[in-house]
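Re: the 183-residue chain
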Amino acid sequence: MNRFLIPFIVFTLVAIMLGVSLCGNPKALKSKSKLLNQIAPRIYLPSLDGKTTVESVHFKGHWVAINFWAEWCVECIKEIPHLVKLSKQTKIKLYGVNYLDVKDKARAFLVRHGNPYIASGFDPDGLTGVDWGITAVPETFLIDPRGIIRHRHLGPVNQFVIKQFKSIVNASKSSRKSEARSK
C-alpha cells in the first residue's frame, strides 16, 4: 500500500498545480504583458456562427474588449453576467475569441449561458491565443480606438474590472480634451 501512496501524492500535487494554472488564478498571475501599450496583434478568425469573420479591422475607431474564453472553463461561466453588463452599460464593443475548443460545444455554451458578444471568433488550434500571449482563460484585453492595448485582465471579468475599464476610457477622454485645449 505504501508503494502507491507516494506516486498518488505526487500525481495529486501536479494535478492541483495544473488546475490552478488552467483556471487562471488572477491573484497568482500578474497582468503584465509585453503587448501593453502596443498595437494589438491582428485577429482574422471565422466566427462561431460560421456566417462571418472576426477581424481587427472591425475594431478601428472604437474602444473594444477582446475576451478569450472556452466552453470547458468554469471561470468563463462566472463572468457571463458581467460581460453582459459590460456590453450594455458601456460603449465598449465586446468581441470574444473561443480558445482551444470544439465549435458545437462552444455554440451550446453560449445558448445555455447567454451570448454577450457582438461576435466570437473561433480559434480551435490556439494560434491567435499564442499571438496574444494567452496564459489561461478567461483573459480580456481592452483596446483603444487606435488599436493599442491599454489593459489586460487575467481571470473572470467582474464589476471591479468593468469599473477599471470605464476609468481607463474616461481618463483617455479627459486626456484628449486637455490636449485639444492646450493647442
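Residues 24-30 have pLDDT under 50 and may be disordered.
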